[in-house]
Amino acid sequence: MEVTDRVHVVAHGWEVARVVDPLYKLKADKIVLVLPDNEAFIPDFEYEMIEELEANDRIEVETRTANLYDLDSALQTITQAVKDHEEDEVYINVSTGTQIAAIAGMMAAQTSEATPFYVQITPDDADEDEVWTPDEPIFSTSGEITELPVFELQGPSTEQLQILGFLHGNDGVTKKELIEHAEEEELPFIMNTEAKSDEGRYRVLDSHIINPLTENEYITVEKAGRKKEVSITQRGIDALAAFPLDSETMEAVENRPDGDVREMRSKAFNPDLESMTSRTKGHHAGLDDSSDQD
């Protein structure tokens, strides 16, 4: 079996801890450090950090350069680094570097299978005399205004989110129960269908809900005796946290004992270390209840 490396892509940003600590916590095998093409921006402590990393036999160090104040330059360098390691497990550390570098990192992640992550700081723990604030604006003048490209996030449809919300509130649901729920909630996919038979409604459920949600790993369908049970996955829960929910879906989610949406969103956007390091190279009363369909 081919073994892949965990590769971190990170931009220079006058920091050490938020570059180095994730390498060890996330068990990285390699770091691609994007340095400014103007060496005057690189302080001595960053050179020392690079030397210490290079002295570590376990972590491979590669450096590349870019203009980290120019989106095209930063994006090209980061996306190329991701592309060059597409057979590996790539993580983009957007904690350091310029704001442009962070934007470029997120854009590179959206157009690839790389995982972006952010390392938080703890300024509230600092003593008052340890907090530094500038006496003057960091930059005295402004430059050219650049419009940023927007990538549309393709998530589940509104009615698919409603089904996910229902699944999140009910563990192990049959297809029959999903159709009954869809009819009770008057979801468009079931209300607008011309299918009159049970078999026809199952086909509509499969084409509009089950198949797309399964293909995107939002749900699983497993046999339980003569029946098939549909369950929401962690990715499905993350989708409920990431995308806007209508009132009915929100109510279904909040009805669970662990259904605090704010907490769900915090977990979705701040995954634990174990999940990041364990990845490898993801009502109708007469409705027929046959084992084939539900």
From TrEMBL:
Pfam families membership: HFX_2341_N, WHD_DUF6293
Record's protein name: Uncharacterized protein
UniProt-listed Gene3D superfamilies: Hypothetical protein VC1899 like domain (Restriction endonuclease-like)
Disordered, as annotated region: 254-294
Domain DUF6293 span(s) in chain numbering: 147-243
Family matches, as InterPro entries: DUF6293_C, HFX_2341-like_N
Annotated HFX-2341-like N-terminal domain residues: 6-120
Residue ranges, compositional bias (Basic and acidic residues): 254-266
